[in-house]
């Protein structure tokens, strides 16, 4: 069996969040769907997986409730369940920036279709900017892109204010996984005086889906926030896994490193855990291996 996976977002004013949460959770559980949905006064953001028929009903519900269209969706598939359960959570923001300057309902950058992206970033006058966190950029990125080296999206503001100058880099092309982060990042940069801000429409996922591998400027794979860990060209699943101890994405080389212990530690977190934490992780891994849950 394979599962249909939908990643989606839309910025729109929402109220009655508790009622919306209860209704969405009941709808998804009745159809045995799994995933995570975030709702906030500014909109909805989520990734949900399930059997094809149930997912068609879910997409119709998203359209009815939030006005989502195909432009708001990134569709892919998974060979196994990419989520363990269904969660619907209320948050202050659907993507956390904590700055009113990053308001995508007021303005955003110019959305550039995947088919036009290569021509844009070939311009030497364009600063190509990755808006993702460092554990995501480790998995893959566009050739020549600037990695801000941030650990969380809220750090993006400081990076822009301390590192970039709109007078020297007036033309910026940015990208992220599915497009949502760029909505706020582009609004923030426009507010800070950057003259031309462009963003990859539909994010990396749309680019990998629509641009042939032989024409692609993408190097590596794309980190995703579910059990598949990373996707490649054509949104194919890859051999990346995640460290249970810290959640870091792991390549085949990482898993061959002496610091790697399955279910316990990896090169990213080795030496950071107490003896008690390591013992607990080993015990849990032994139970899971034995099928005890």
TrEMBL record:
<comment type="function">
    <text>Catalyzes oxygen-dependent 5-hydroxyuridine (ho5U) modification at position 34 in tRNAs.</text>
</comment>
<dbReference type="InterPro" id="IPR020936">
    <property type="entry name" value="TrhO"/>
</dbReference>
<feature type="domain" description="Rhodanese">
    <location>
        <begin position="122"/>
        <end position="216"/>
    </location>
</feature>
<protein>
    <recommendedName>
        <fullName>tRNA uridine(34) hydroxylase</fullName>
        <ecNumber>1.14.-.-</ecNumber>
    </recommendedName>
</protein>
<dbReference type="InterPro" id="IPR040503">
    <property type="entry name" value="TRHO_N"/>
</dbReference>
<dbReference type="InterPro" id="IPR036873">
    <property type="entry name" value="Rhodanese-like_dom_sf"/>
</dbReference>
<dbReference type="InterPro" id="IPR001763">
    <property type="entry name" value="Rhodanese-like_dom"/>
</dbReference>
<comment type="similarity">
    <text>Belongs to the TrhO family.</text>
</comment>
<dbReference type="Pfam" id="PF17773">
    <property type="entry name" value="UPF0176_N"/>
</dbReference>
<keyword id="KW-0819">tRNA processing</keyword>
<dbReference type="Pfam" id="PF00581">
    <property type="entry name" value="Rhodanese"/>
</dbReference>
<keyword id="KW-0560">Oxidoreductase</keyword>
């Amino acid at each position: 069996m394979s599962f249909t996976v939908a990643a989606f977002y839309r910025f729109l004013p929402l109220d009655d969040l508790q009622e919306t949460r209860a209704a969405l959770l009941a709808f998804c559980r009745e159809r045995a769907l799994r995933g995570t949905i975030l709702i906030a006064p500014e909109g909805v953001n989520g990734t949900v997986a399930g059997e094809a028929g149930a997912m068609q009903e879910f997409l119709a519900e998203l359209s009815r409730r939030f006005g989502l269209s195909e432009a708001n969706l990134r569709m892919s598939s998974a060979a196994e369940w990419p989520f363990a359960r269904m969660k619907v959570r209320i948050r202050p923001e659907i993507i956390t920036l904590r700055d009113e300057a990053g308001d995508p309902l007021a303005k955003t950058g110019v959305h550039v279709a995947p088919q036009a992206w290569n021509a844009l970033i070939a311009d030497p006058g364009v600063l190509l900017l990755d808006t993702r966190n460092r554990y995501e950029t480790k998995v893959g990125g566009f050739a020549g892109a600037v990695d801000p080296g941030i650990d969380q999206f809220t750090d993006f503001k400081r990076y822009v204010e301390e590192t970039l100058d709109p007078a020297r880099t007036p033309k910026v092309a940015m990208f992220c996984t599915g497009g949502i982060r760029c909505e706020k990042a582009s609004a923030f940069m426009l507010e800070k005086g950057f003259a031309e801000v462009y963003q990859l429409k539909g994010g990396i996922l749309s680019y990998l889906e629509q641009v042939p591998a032989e024409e692609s400027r993408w190097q590596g794979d794309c980190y995703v926030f579910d059990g598949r860990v990373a996707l490649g060209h054509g949104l194919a699943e890859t051999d990346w896994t995640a460290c249970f101890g810290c959640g870091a994405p792991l390549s085949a080389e990482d898993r061959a490193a002496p610091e790697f212990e399955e279910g316990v530690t990896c090169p990213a977190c080795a030496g950071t855990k107490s003896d008690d934490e390591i013992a607990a992780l080993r015990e849990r891994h032994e139970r899971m291996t034995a099928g005890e849950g």
